[in-house]
Write a structure and sequence with these properties.
This protein has 13 helices and no strands. The chain is mostly helical and 313 residues long.
């Protein structure tokens, strides 16, 4: 097990290198010159050339790529073209809102999706099952930003229960933090509740038809014991897998949600950086997102051994 974990951790290095190469190449080929943006509309070609030279934008592609990879290997993501702040400092300043939104979304998703999927499986082919699956299809079909605007219209504009935008650290005021984070978290969670509830239902239906479930029922065990002690544990592997896969979609949803609710997180940071052609910031944030995604998939793979003892590494 330990050797497997070490191998997986080492395997993240080439993955991140490939991601870095792709991101660097994509940004290098993307139309737009940050030097022209910095210089302004009234700048002369000489002014733009000086800015490009100061930023190293006039160097050959391979030279720029090699220098950037060497700095990243040392933990240096570079300096923002516009703010002149180190990229790792900007990421550190923005990571709390993003982590708060992601963790709150996952907590809401798991808390609601598991009971919904289990209940739909237990009430298969009934009105309850159809209602839950109808919500799942609708929730997974509607774009995140549409859900966000609808929730803002209802809970913030009409009822005036929750603030429209902004973020407050939990260390400053837990109650205000909760009031600000709950609406964007539910906006993002609706999509994942729909996705995970469908997978939970399918997995539970398959497990509930097994012989050992009928044996457990014949022994007089309560339905609660059958579900929690036998069915859910054996259905956990595909459920955990889809949660891990959903992290990739969660990253995309975070970017959209932070933009809709004006949350100063990494998603908002990368959107602003794209609009300004701030290459170092874009590259740094995408590498951080990629690293978290790889780590989540590693944890998912390791968790399989706890749910299914037949899986060995």
């Amino acid at each position: 097990m330990i050797s497997y974990i070490l191998r997986r951790i080492l395997a993240t290095v080439p993955v991140l290198l490939v991601v870095g190469l792709f991101v660097f190449s994509l940004l290098y080929l993307t139309p737009g010159d940050p030097a022209m943006v910095i210089a302004g509309d009234t700048a002369t070609p000489e002014d733009i050339a000086k800015i490009r030279a100061s930023l190293g934008l006039d160097e050959p592609f391979l030279q720029r790529l090699g220098g950037w990879l060497w700095r990243v290997a040392q933990g240096d993501f570079g300096v923002s073209i516009f703010s002149n702040l180190p990229v790792h400092v900007m990421i550190a300043q923005r990571i709390e809102p993003t982590l708060s939104l992601a963790l709150t979304t996952l907590a809401i998703t798991v808390t609601l999706a598991l009971p919904m999927g289990i209940f739909a499986a237990l009430k298969a082919s009934t009105t309850v099952d159809r209602v839950i699956m109808g919500f799942a299809v609708l929730g997974f079909s509607v774009p995140v930003f549409v859900i966000g605007y609808l929730l803002i219209l209802f809970f913030s504009v009409k009822l005036q229960w929750l603030p429209v935008q902004g973020f407050v650290s939990i260390s400053q005021d837990p109650w205000t933090f909760l009031r600000h984070i709950i609406l964007p978290s539910f906006t993002l969670a609706i999509v994942f509740i729909a996705l995970i509830a469908r997978i939970v239902r399918s997995s539970m239906l398959e497990v509930l038809s097994k012989d050992y479930i009928r044996t457990a029922k014949s022994k007089g065990l309560s339905m609660y014991s059958v579900v929690t002690s036998h069915a859910l544990k054996n259905a956990a592997v595909p459920i955990v897998t889809i949660i891990g896969v959903g992290i990739g979609a969660l990253i995309t949803g975070v970017v959209v949600t932070e933009t809709v609710f004006a949350i100063p997180g990494l998603g908002r940071l990368v959107v602003d950086a794209i609009l300004k052609r701030d290459y170092p910031v874009i590259q740094g944030v995408i590498l951080v997102f990629s690293f978290f995604y790889v780590m989540v998939n590693l944890l998912v793979d390791i968790s399989y051994t706890f749910f299914d003892p037949r899986i060995k590494y």
